[in-house]
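Lecture notes, part 5. Sequence design as translation. It can be helpful to think of inverse folding as translation between two languages: the language of shapes and the language of residues. The source text, in C-alpha cells, appears below.
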C-alpha cells in the first residue's frame, strides 16, 4: 500500500490526499492516453535533500506529452517548482515523485476533443522497488511470453500510461510464475527492457545495453553510462539476444524505482557467480554516492531543497 502523504498538487493547487479524485468518464481512464514520470528525491550527506535529475525528468514528461499530442497547460519551470513544493508541503526528505498528465472528462469516443488536460503530482516514500534483498543479492527473472511494443504501434519513447498494459501483463505473469521481474524481447526477438527498467550486461569487461529503439530513454541508464565512461569502462549500445544474456558475466537493471538491481538468474540459468557482480557493486556504490550528494563531480544532477 502506498503510504499516504498530506497533499497532492492537482492542476495548480494543493488538495488533501483523499480528495485528489477524478470522474469515471475521465478520457485517460478509458483509452490510456496520458503520460507520467517517476523521479526520486534522496537525503543528502549534508543533511538536506535533493531531487535527482529533476530537469531531465520534467523535460521527458513534456517530450512524452508532445509524442502523444498532449499540450501540458504549465511550463517546465512551473512543474519543477510544483514538485519541490509538493515534497516540502508533505515533509518528504526522501521520496518517489509521480507527476501524471491525463485527459479529463468531457466527451467520450476515441478522439479526446476538447477534454481538459489535467496534471497532478504525488509524492510518497518508496523503498527498494524489487525488495530489500534485491540490491544486495540480485533477482531472478524470466523471459516474458509478451513481446515489447513495436516502435510504430506504441510510442516507446513516451512514458505513456497505455504503454504499461504490456508491462503489467508481463509483470503479473512473471510474479505468478515465481520470478521477481520479466525480461521483455522486442518484436525481432532481441532483448529490449523489463517492465520498468533498462538492462545492462557485462562480458569480459565490456558493458552492453540495448540501443534506444524499443526501450524507454532511461535517465538512470544515461546516468550509469556517463558514470561507466568516467570510471574507464567500455560501454556499447548494441542489440543482443537472450542467449548472450545467459552467458554474460553479470547483468543488472537500471531505473528510478529499481536504481541499480543485479540479476542473478535468467530463465533458471545462473548468471555469472549467481550473485551481485563486481561491476554492479561498484556502480551501485558510485550511484548512491552521486544521488546522496557525496560526489561533487555530479552536483549539477541534484536540485537541493530543505524541509
Ligand atoms: N523502461 C521502462 C519501461 C520504465 O518504466 C522505466 C522507469 C525505465 C525503463 C527506466 O527509466 P528511468 O527511471 O528514467 O531510469 N520506470 C518507472 C516506473 C516504475 C513503476 O513501477 O511505476 C520508474 O522507475 O520510476
Amino acid at each position: 500500500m502506498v503510504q499516504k502523504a498530506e497533499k497532492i498538487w492537482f492542476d495548480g493547487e494543493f488538495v488533501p490526499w483523499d480528495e485528489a479524485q477524478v470522474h469515471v468518464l475521465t478520457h485517460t481512464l478509458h483509452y490510456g492516453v496520458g503520460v507520467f514520470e517517476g523521479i526520486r528525491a534522496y537525503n543528502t550527506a549534508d543533511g538536506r535533500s535533493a531531487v535527482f535529475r529533476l530537469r531531465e525528468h520534467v523535460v521527458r514528461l513534456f517530450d512524452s506529452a508532445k509524442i502523444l499530442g498532449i499540450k501540458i497547460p504549465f511550463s517546465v519551470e512551473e512543474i519543477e517548482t510544483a514538485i519541490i513544493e509538493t515534497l516540502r508541503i508533505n515533509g518528504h526528505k526522501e521520496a518517489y515523485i509521480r507527476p501524471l498528465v491525463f485527459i479529463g472528462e468531457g466527451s467520450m469516443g476515441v478522439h479526446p476533443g476538447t477534454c481538459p488536460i489535467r496534471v497532478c503530482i504525488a509524492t510518497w516514500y518508496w523503498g527498494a522497488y524489487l525488495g530489500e534483498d534485491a540490491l544486495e543479492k540480485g533477482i531472478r527473472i524470466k523471459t516474458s511470453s509478451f513481446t515489447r511494443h513495436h516502435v510504430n504501434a506504441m510510442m516507446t519513447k513516451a512514458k505513456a500510461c497505455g504503454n504499461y498494459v504490456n508491462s503489467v501483463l508481463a509483470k503479473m505473469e512473471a510474479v505468478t510464475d515465481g520470478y521477481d521481474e520479466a525480461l521483455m524481447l522486442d518484436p525481432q526477438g532481441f532483448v529490449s527492457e523489463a517492465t520498468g527498467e533498462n538492462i545492462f550486461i557485462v562480458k569480459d569487461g565490456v558493458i552492453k545495453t540495448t540501443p534506444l529503439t524499443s526501450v524507454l530513454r532511461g535517465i538512470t541508464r544515461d546516468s550509469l553510462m556517463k558514470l561507466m565512461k568516467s570510471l574507464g569502462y567500455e560501454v556499447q549500445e548494441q542489440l543482443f539476444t537472450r542467449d548472450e544474456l545467459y552467458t554474460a558475466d553479470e547483468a543488472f537493471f537500471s531505473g528510478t524505482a529499481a536504481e541499480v538491481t543485479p540479476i542473478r538468474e535468467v530463465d533458471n540459468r545462473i548468471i555469472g557467480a549467481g550473485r551481485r557482480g563486481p561491476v554492479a557493486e561498484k556502480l551501485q556504490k558510485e550511484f548512491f554516492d552521486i544521488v546522496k550528494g557525496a560526489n561533487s563531480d555530479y552536483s549539477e544532477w541534484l536540485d537541493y531543497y530543505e524541509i
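The translated text above is only one of many valid answers, since several sequences can fold into similar shapes. The pocket of PPE is lined by residues 38, 193, 196-198, 215-216, 218-221, 254-258 (CB under 6 Å).
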